[in-house]
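Bug #77: duplicate submission created two jobs. Keeping one. Sequence:
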Amino acid sequence: MSDLITKFSFGVGDRFAHQAKAQLTAIKMAKDAGFEITPVWNKSYREHSTIGSRPEVTRQQADLAVKELGWKGSYLLDADHINLNNVDFFLDSCDFYTIDVAEYIGKKTDDNLVESFCGQNEKYIGELSLPGLGSVEVTAELIKQVGQKYLNAAIEAGKIY
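Kept job's structure:
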């Protein structure tokens, strides 16, 4: 377990808690070839529920693979596709969290919240230059549309965090 993630990470799904050593062997081969990669063992609540596993078993298998193979790099365990209903299931075993708030995208957002969002972001009205991507024309209407579509999801992500 490590708090560090390198520039490159690779999600490895040890679905049945038997592949961690083989997966880490592949990551070690990449490292030997000059690639610094952080393995991130990921498993969603749905996957755990489907096969009847628990995050602590996935953690044990990842830790065991790291120990047996002498891995000195960082590695993480991802609570994959979590939401407010299942985040607690992962807290003791995981150190990386993929928050899934897709069901909140496009849901009606309180008009007062959208208005506040628009006010906070009006400073971006005009041409916004994005290095490597060009520029985009930001309008008050675009900011409002973004708030209406995504603000609920952002608020939910904040609650989970």
